[in-house]
Amino acid sequence: MAAATAKIPIVDFSAMNLEDALNENGQAVKIVAEQLYRAFSTIGFVYLQNHGIPQEMVDSVFETYDQFFNLSPDVKAKYGKKKITSQNITPQNGWDAVEMERTSPNRPGDLKESFDVESFDDGNFSWPNAELPHFKSTVSSFYQSMKDLALRVLTVMAIGLENVLFQDDIGGLEVRNVDGAFIRATPMKGTVIVNIADLMQRWTADKLKSTVHRVLIPEVELKHTVPRRSLVLFVDPDHETLIECVDGSNKYPPITSGEWKKRRLIETYNYK
């Protein structure tokens, strides 16, 4: 049964739990599908509980990334991401320094650093295993679990792209609701946040909603000096996939997934 917290629904994903064999049939799966569609066609966000990714695995990945980000800037720079150009957009592996990303030429860079992983088979990228011997294996195991969960969500929905997010307990994520007001996506232990991305909204001719969201500094003063951490999986189709409105309309012109991604990456990084 779906509950609600701050108007972001909580969906029990037990029927599609990663710990159990995949079963696409049955009334329980239909109920989950209905709850997801209702959420994604309104606010665009859900909390999933009983998803099957152990909290111990999430905590281990957070700790691994903490160790990397605590390395000196000179060491982290050895694992920096390649410059984004119209000819070079993939694979996007590596570290981005604070203020490297921005989504508008009129705004300062984002006050965050990140380590992105797109391919574990990129022979041109050196992983920081010299400093952190278990870095690649830890991240790889978690990535596979996140990918498996995302695919199960898509199996229930039958179509799509979404983002899958684990956040720590610091908070700060806010989502614009159907009334236009921002509401808090309060961290909840044992849950993962799933939200619709822009390309999914385009693909479904606005049936599913990619909702504006933001991250603010937490109001609790004690949290002002504590890093806010999140682990996010961005789900995209293969680059050659043609994205056309599934309802047969021409609300948005066709575009390949690769061309869409290239445009967005250039927008994000070329303002620097």
TrEMBL record:
Molecular function GO labels = metal ion binding; oxidoreductase activity
Read off the Pfam families from this record: 2OG-FeII_Oxy (PF03171), DIOX_N (PF14226)
Q: Iron: present as a keyword of the record?
A: yes
Q: Which keywords belong to this entry?
A: Iron, Metal-binding, Oxidoreductase
The organism sits in which domain of life?
Answer: Eukaryota
Q: Which InterPro entries match?
A: DIOX_N (IPR026992), IPNS-like_FE2OG_OXY (IPR044861), IPNS-like_sf (IPR027443), Iron_ascorbate_oxido_reductase (IPR050231), Oxoglu/Fe-dep_dioxygenase_dom (IPR005123)
Tell me where in this chain the Fe2OG dioxygenase domain is found. Answer: 104-237
Q: What Gene3D superfamilies does the record point to?
A: B-lactam Antibiotic, Isopenicillin N Synthase, Chain
> Hey, which family's this protein in?
Belongs to the iron/ascorbate-dependent oxidoreductase family.
The name on file for this protein is: Fe2OG dioxygenase domain-containing protein
